[in-house]
Structure formats: structure tokens, C-alpha cells
Amino acid sequence: MELQFPPLPDYANLLKFMVVALAAVGTVQPKLATDADKDLYSPDSLPQRFVTNKLVTTKPDILDILDYHNTTSLDDGEVGESRRTKHFVLAYVTPWNNKGYDRAMKFAHKFTHISPVWLQAHTNKEASRYVIKGTHDIDAGWVERLRTANKDLRIVPRLLLEGFDSPAYQKLFYDADYAHALASVIGKCLKKYELDGVVLEMWQQLNEDVHRRAMRNAIKTIADKMSKDGFETILVVPPSGGENLPGRFRTEDFNFLASSVKAFSVMTYDHPRTYSSAGAIAPLPWVIDSIESIVPEAKEKSKRKKILLGLNHYGYDFSRKSGANALTSSAYLDQLAKYRPSLQWDATGREHVYKYSDETGEHIVHYPTLKSLDERINLSIMMNVGLAIWDLGQGLEYFLDLL
């Protein structure tokens, strides 16, 4: 029985791009874009076993996934210190998916930035105005080992603003002294623990457009102060709203902040529909729309190098009874082994999907595959953007061979 999905938004213009971009995508690699990019697009940039065993395909064999998922070219001694893309590759590591810590070490040469999810900023009544919490999670030994594995790697923990009420946001947005104070407290923490910067998750606090300019000014003040002190700021920004709605982060925002912020981590996963109905987690036309809504003109592709395309290493298991539940690698592998489902290729969303039934009813599952990830990595190269992986501990180990 063919799987049924709600219709995707009308991406007619974007799909014209996709016809050109994806018509070139074969079983393993797209056609060369330019002579200068041959090393990026050549099948030689993938581990030979992916090519030999035809693992990057729209018709993957479940037994191949079960057999190969936990071994990589590093285990085979096949590849050296190389990456497919010349742009930033950031990977998030979360304490609750701690496989990511080991993978960050093992594949350190594949990344430019590692962002452990450690820190939170809180307000206080002291002269400093703010305090950084979560430092108990900082693993100095792991940080040191990462630097040994890749001397150029930047360690930039994610920083959330927690416990801020409306007056606290107003002060931060509208009083530069508060923005300077927050930057100073962050900088002192980074210096103490010998870290390189932060991934700042703050833009999502924009609930009313009237505060857009004020918040933008605050972020610029923070990032400029951080840069002056020798630290990087990467800003997390929302994707396109979907359904032809503009994203809350606009071209004007990017242009205003680009000289101050090191990079922009765009959350091109969890399509807005994901929580309410079965469907692609990150439909490729929507991913393109999210990038083009920030830097729309292809002739300005050089600006896009600061954009990091969000790449999910997790999936969703959707059922009518329980809605959408996040799916990590262990549960995914258990489902493949138990139910032996048939993976089908969603040619519009460019993801694999399968169905299974248990005592609670029918489930529809989207989880990344080598093929879906390979297309998104190729897209990042064609669009001149970097990558941001959420998160290293949720996916299959051989996903990292694609980088």
C-alpha cells in the first residue's frame, strides 16, 4: 500500500531549481558543478565501500543498514584528514546522547566547530546582572583531547537564555549596558574554561516584530564585544516558516549582523508540519527556501558561506495515537530488525520513509539515510553554505563518513 502524505506547500519556483540541481544526482554523486569543485563532487570523495556496495541509494537494503551502520572508513583505515566541503561544519553534542562525545573525538578532522550543549545564561541581582550556569557539564579533559585530535577545531558551547521574563528581555534588548554585561559574563566563562566562543540561541525569543531592531542591536553588541575579546559568536536562527510564509529571520537581519557574527546556524529540520502529521522532517524544497529567504540572490552566493544548513541525524515516529516522537539510532535499528519494513523514497521531500504496525496502531517513520544526507550535503556545496549537525549522538556512525 502506498504511503499517503499531506500535500507539501507550493514550491513551484524552488522545484525548478531542484530539477536542475537534483537531475544530476545519481545513485552516489551529482554531476560536477565546476572544474574547481571536482574534488567535492567526485565519487572519490566518498568511502569506496559506499560506492562498491551501492549504499547511497533510493532503494537501500535493510540488511545493509544493519550490517554496515556501525563501521566506518576510519575503521578500515581508508581515509585521511579530509572533508568534502570547504565551508564550516559544526556538530552539536548533547549530554543526553553521549555517543556524540566519542564521535566528536573519532571524527574530529571532519569538523571546524563542535558545540556541546552545556551553558545557560540567567539573570541575577548582582552587579554583573547575569550568571552562566551549566559549567558542571564542561569536560576539560575531553576539550583538550579534541584539540589534540584537531588543532584547528573551535569549541563553541551552545548558550541558552533561561528564566528571562519580559522585563529582563526588555532590558537586554533596549539597554546596551545590559548587552555589554552579558557579553562580559560570557567572555569570562569562556576564558576560564579555555573555550573559543558560543552558539547563541536567542533569536527564538522574538515574539513580537516590534522588538526586531532592538534585539538585533543587542545581538550585534554582544557579538562585537565577544569578537573584541577574541571569541566567536554563532547565532541560531529559525528556518523558513513553511506554507509560503517568510521566516522570522530575514535578509535585512542577516545583512545587519553578518559582519559581527561568525556564522548562522539555520534550523532546517523539524518542518513545522512534523509535529501535527506525518511527513518529511526537512523537505528539500523547504531547506532551499530557508537558505534563499536569507540570501535570495544566487549572484550573492559568497555571502552564504556564513550560513550553516541544519542537518538532522534523528528521525520521527508518527502515529495517530501518540503523534510525533523523536527517534534515535538505537530505536530505529530495533524497528528495522523487528519489523523489516520496506523503505520508500519520498521523491518530493527527498527522504526515506517506512510504515510498521504494533499494538498501538500504524506508524509512519522518517529517519535519515545515506541517500537523504548525501543530497543535503551536495546541496550545501552547490549553495555555498556550511553544515550544522543536530546531533552527533542521535545518528548512525557511518553517517559521518559522508562529511
Task: Tell me about this structure.
This protein has 403 residues and is of the alpha/beta class. It has one domain: Glycosidases (TIM Barrel), CATH 3.20.20.80. It contains 14 helices and 15 strands. The protein has helices spanning 12-23, 38-41, 48-52, 62-68, 73-76, 99-106, 140-149, 166-174, 176-192, 212-228, 251-257, 284-292, 329-339, 370-382, and strands at 89-93, 113-123, 130-133, 154-155, 158-161, 197-201, 232-237, 263-266, 307-312, 315-319, 323-327, 344-346, 351-358, 361-366, 386-390. The strands form two sheets. The protein has an eight-stranded parallel β-barrel with strand order 1-2-5-6-7-8-9-15, surrounded by five helices. It has a five-stranded antiparallel β-sheet with strand order 11-10-14-13-12, with helices on one face. It is globular, with a radius of gyration of 21 Å.
Structural class: alpha/beta
Give the beta-strand count: 15
Secondary-structure element series: HHHHHEHEEHEEHHEHEHEHEEEHEEEHE
Spatial separation of the terminal alpha carbons: 35 Å
List the helices and strands and how they pair.
Elements: H1 12-23, H2 38-41, H3 48-52, H4 62-68, H5 73-76, E1 89-93, H6 99-106, E2 113-123, E3 130-133, H7 140-149, E4 154-155, E5 158-161, H8 166-174, H9 176-192, E6 197-201, H10 212-228, E7 232-237, H11 251-257, E8 263-266, H12 284-292, E9 307-312, E10 315-319, E11 323-327, H13 329-339, E12 344-346, E13 351-358, E14 361-366, H14 370-382, E15 386-390
Parallel strand pairs: 1-2, 1-15, 2-4, 2-5, 5-6, 6-7, 7-8, 8-9, 9-15
Antiparallel strand pairs: 2-3, 10-11, 10-14, 12-13, 13-14
Helix pairs in contact: 6-7, 8-9, 9-10
InterPro entries: Chitinase_II/V-like_cat (IPR011583), Chitinase_insertion_sf (IPR029070), GH (IPR017853), Glyco_hydro18_cat (IPR001223)
Family: Belongs to the glycosyl hydrolase 18 family.
Protein name: Chitinase domain-containing protein 1
